[in-house]
Specification:
The protein has about 325 residues and is mainly β. It contains two helices and 22 strands.
């Protein structure tokens, strides 16, 4: 007795994912599975195989199993219709429970295939992925529940998470500004926030929002992202800046604006030639570790220097009245 050939070919044309794949909502493609049976020789009693030269090719866009079932059904049809010497007992009934065969009603004579068991489908739960901007600020993208369908819950969730991370890296919007320059009470102030990424509006810009307390006298332009005005009170002011792109993606970042005021009297204590001199300069807010004092205009008395922390010191060497302008700046904590 000849041994019948087993499955000769089972392939997927064309496929870019694993066998038994459902069509993905995110990456649609057409998965075609091919089942190919070629049985030779007389089949063993009670087992249905195709006779010599009876080949069957089926295609399925659902699963490899469906394609194989279809091919086997066609092989059985060939056997029922063309077996010259049927064995005893007779071959089991063919399609539609018709003894000895029975025609297929599908277009082109290709039978439909009923899966041997229902294929259960799972949809993802909501998945979020956080990526970082260059300064470490997080940007989060989410994929809604039910976006991905898969054969297991873990696979559906894993694909949704991968999609969320892919979108986050492509769509992230970042505020480039790190720190604000300090302001001075009574002086004009202007600072421009900048951002990158996302999808800009037709003018190439973004929309901006501010949450928190701005210094008195300072306003914020939501169309340009600019702080401007004349501050009227010293202090450390904390607020949050939000930037939105044309697709409503957003990023927020916390900032502190330090408004400085020199409270030392404009007329300093007199010095004497040959006598050591030291005069600390006082500003508000006080005790800011990052404060930096500089000479803006004029000149200091010969022998006197200005320390970065705001101390005039030294030993005067020349009489005279000296007029100069000092400036202090700082980044408040």
């Amino acid at each position: 007795m000849n041994t019948p050939c087993a499955l000769a070919l089972a392939s997927c044309l064309p496929c870019n994912d694993d066998p038994i794949r459902n069509i993905s909502a995110e990456d649609p493609d057409v998965d075609v599975f091919t089942g190919f049976y070629d049985f030779k020789g007389d089949p063993p009693l009670g087992i249905v195989y195709a006779q010599l030269g009876c080949k069957s090719i089926c295609f399925s866009t659902t699963s490899q199993r469906d394609a194989d079932d279809c091919a086997l059904n066609q092989a059985q049809e060939c056997t029922w219709n063309g077996w010259r010497n049927p064995p005893v007992p007779p071959i089991p009934p063919g399609p539609n429970d018709e003894p000895g065969g029975g025609g297929f009603n599908t277009p082109g004579g290709v039978p439909t295939s009923t899966p041997r068991s229902p294929i259960r489908q799972f949809t993802n739960t909501i998945q979020g992925c956080s990526v970082e901007c260059p300064d470490g600020t997080p940007f989060i993208e989410t994929v809604a529940a039910g976006t991905i369908r898969e054969l297991s819950q873990s696979l559906a969730n894993a694909k949704a998470l991968a999609l969320a991370c892919k979108r986050a890296n492509l769509d992230k919007i970042c505020i480039v500004t790190d720190q604000l320059t300090s302001a001075c009470v009574g002086d004009d102030y202007s600072f421009q926030f900048t951002a990158t990424g996302g999808t800009t509006f037709s003018d190439g810009g973004y929309l901006w929002n501010v949450f928190g307390d701005l210094p008195p006298g300072i306003s914020f332009d939501g169309g340009t992202g600019e702080l401007s005005g004349i501050p009227t009170a010293s202090g450390s002011y904390v607020f949050q800046i939000e930037v939105l792109d044309a697709t409503d993606r957003e990023t927020t970042k916390l900032f502190t604006l330090c408004v400085m005021e020199i409270v030392t009297a404009a007329t300093l204590p007199q010095g004497a030639i040959g006598t050591a001199y030291s005069q600390p300069l006082i500003e508000q807010p006080g005790e800011v570790a990052t404060e930096q004092w500089t000479l803006v205009t004029g000149e200091l008395p010969p022998g006197i220097t200005l320390a970065a922390n705001g101390v005039l010191s030294g030993t005067p060497t020349t009489d005279g009245v000296y007029v100069f302008v000092l400036q202090v700046s700082a980044n408040c904590p």
